[in-house]
Input
Amino acid sequence: MSKSSTQKDIVVKSNRLNSALQNLSLAEIRIIQLAIVDARESGKGLDPSTPLTISASRYVEVFETTRQNAYMRIKETEETLFNRRFSFIDEDGLLVKSRWLSQVRYLDNQGEIELSFTPAVVKGISRIDGAVDFFTQYSLQQTSGLDSAYSTRLYELLVQWKAAKKTPLFELETFRAQLGLQENEYARMFDFKKRVLDMAVNEINKVTDLKVSYQQIKEGRSIIGFIFTVTLKNKEAPLKDVKRDTNTLDMFVPMTDSQRYHFAKKLSKLHELSYLAKGEAGRNYDVFAEQIANELSDPERVKFYEKYLMQVGFKKSI
Output
């Protein structure tokens, strides 16, 4: 059964960071999730030079485990997370490799871990209010009941596409790396699907607010990747209680798909928005319009567009 979202436990990452190739344990993912949430809730934000503290009691509260287990997981994370690395493609199309942490301390007497994130992580977590990077957000409550790192990572990758309701092709090699698999882990497709993919899909469908399924894509007789269908089980209220203003884009959220697409087609011609187009959308107005229309079905993503369009002098009369 899925859990309802609150306004205070939102994990937000840029799509670039969310799609990074990484190899984290479940405890490590959870510590990073808590750091993101607590930095936002406390108002302290994140800075490479400012450590953030996560306590065992906080871990117990969110993930409903024993205090002893929380202490063990935090101590274990202090020893491993500092050495973890990830890689992503930057805005210039180049591969960037980074660590998650620049510094870590385990405060034994207090049962706390003190983390300092690297600049690449801080940028991917805290600078989500600009117009260059789209971002992914979800309620921590939705993943707190997942018992596998694979399930948690798959949820993060799929929730990014909940507005579109369908993902692009997740190419097999990249997808495996995004889930944290080494080259020799579950190398046979039968084992990968049984031990990783199907297990993760079933757990997501059972525990979270998403209903997902997948289609395997073949080239000849070989599976080259997967395309996922992603839907919300229940239509939830927006994460923030915002009064609707009929002079803003927010008015288009409850409209039909055709109405959203009609408006999105106009937006796609705006020079100020053209550089937001990704991939094929960068070469085709119709594809870009469809991309925008999908974004406009998500109230939180609408606010992202609204803020930028107001900055560039958007007028309702467009």
